[in-house]
Amino acid sequence: MIFFFGTRATSVLTELVPNLSCQYCGEQRMYLVISSRYFHFFWIPMFPIGKSTYTVCNHCKQTLSINQMPQEYRIAIADQAAKAKTPVWQFAGLMIIGVCIAVPILIGIIAKITH
Ligand SMILES: [Zn+2]
Asked: Which end of the chain, N or C, is less surrounded by CB atoms within 10 Å?
């Protein structure tokens, strides 16, 4: 049998960062991009693995990860980054497995009570 599994990423947040200019070209429009990576099994999201945070300059397209950002960038994005939540649907696979375990147990309990 062939199993299809791996990881995929989805964008969680893309927002303009106020009061931040590009350190390379001076552009005022800097975007904060946060993506969330998840493990999938037959394309069903099972659980999230982690988030990636980047800033992207609208003009020169310089892209910096959290480890590459200067301190002023990290301060500027802190509040916006904090509100980026992992989407609940990335736990869909675990929820399905949970339901498949819980439902037979509940049916068993109900059957014992009613007999
Ligand atoms: Zn730039």
From this structure: N
**3 state SS of 42:** coil
pLDDT (tens digit per residue) in 11-44: 999 999 999 999 999 999 999 999 999 999 999 9
**CA dihedral in degrees (56, 43, 51, 90; nearest 10)?**
120
Measure 12 CA to ligand 1 centroid, in angstroms. Answer: 23
Task: Calculate Rg over the CA atoms of the chain.
Answer: 21
- Cα 60 to Cα 26: distance, rounded to the nearest angstrom: 9
Structure tokens at 77: 């994005």
b/e sequence 27-63, b meaning 16+ C-beta within 10 Å: beebbbbbbbebbbeeeebbebeebebbbbbeeeeee
Ligand 1 midpoint to CA 63 (Å): 9
